[in-house]
Amino acid sequence: MPLRTLLFATLICLGAAPAFAQHDFKKIDTWLNDNTAAMGGRAIMMVYKDGQIIYTHSVNNMNLQQKMMGKFMARRQGKTADLDDYTPSSRVAIASCSKWLSAALIMTFVDEGKLKLTDTVGKFLPVLSQNGKGEITIGQCLSHQTGIKPLSLKDDLQDLKNTNTMDEAMQNIAKLPMEGGPGKVFHYSNVGLQIAGAVIEKLGGKTFQTLFAERIAKPLDMKNTDFGTNKVALPAGGGISTAEDYLNFLAMILNKGTFNGKRILNESSIAQMQINRITADIKVAYSPSEAGDGGYGYGEWVMKSPTADTQSLPVSSPGLFGSFPWIDNNRKYTGILITFYINSNGRNERYKELKSLVDEAVK
Q1: Residue 248's beta-bridge partner residues?
Q2: CA dihedral in degrees (216, 173, 283, 293; nearest 10)?
Q3: How large a percentage of the chain has pLDDT more than 90?
Q4: What is the number of other CB atoms lying within 10 angstroms of the CB of residue 363?
Q5: CB 270 within 8 A of CB 253
Q6: pLDDT in tens, 243-263
Q7: What are the distances in angstroms from CA 358 to CA 7, 14, 168, 169, 349?
Q8: Global pTM exceeds 0.70
């Protein structure tokens, strides 16, 4: 049964569903009620385990300032402000949560043998070779180890907004300086996934947006998830999704690449994505504070855990706007918190606290 269908059946049978009877989520209800005001005023939380959604809870606690900011942001985007409570199907900009989706899309080309993680990008994008960046590998693109020094996030997004084609985006990246050799420096940014996105556009003969729709969104029944309508996609942060859609993706990763009986990614690709690539010899030029001291794989953070062995560490891909998807491979469950706010103060501590409460509830 698709997760979306199962969700509504679960909500209808809330009082009688055995899955809910086995777990006590009262502490998480309380945590959401207490913390949502500091997380933009709206939040929705969903948890999936043993093939079913076992928890869904949303809070709408927007103050006047948050409502005014919501209306302001909507006007800037030419939209009508939606100030209703988040539901499992509410579409929200997910920022860097997009990186996980994009890395998975690129791995579909690896699974098909059309691309190798050791392939150098100059093989597909001569403009990078012409500017001394052709030896960067696809794996280094997925793990933020290109060695390229990116623009500030603000300048990078502005540049992309004024860019008309992916080829033009590659010309802009080609001109950027290097801050270290490929595979020697970790710098969390948009650059690596933008390059990898350009590569698969060449291989697939279609836009990144179309490739994502065909290879990830459609087979995962992610009906309300896309990478927007801009001329050039932003693989590292341009995704828009819903809690229920993203949970489908997480369920696939948790289930080693399968979803509703369909193989989406090879199990070996899932394993490759979850290996920490920030080894002792890698210089960390920039890592966001909300990531804490975790490692990084392909499109996802590898979270430290005192209880899990090194082969089953939790993985995550939090976004700038506060959304927090994660998978606990040791406890065999996945969860997602959807929010929309900018102030990241205390965010990592909140993530840890929330995950600890969910860990306790799903035992």
Answers
A1: none
A2: -40
A3: 80
A4: 8
A5: yes
A6: 999 999 999 999 999 999 999
A7: 19, 18, 45, 41, 14
A8: yes
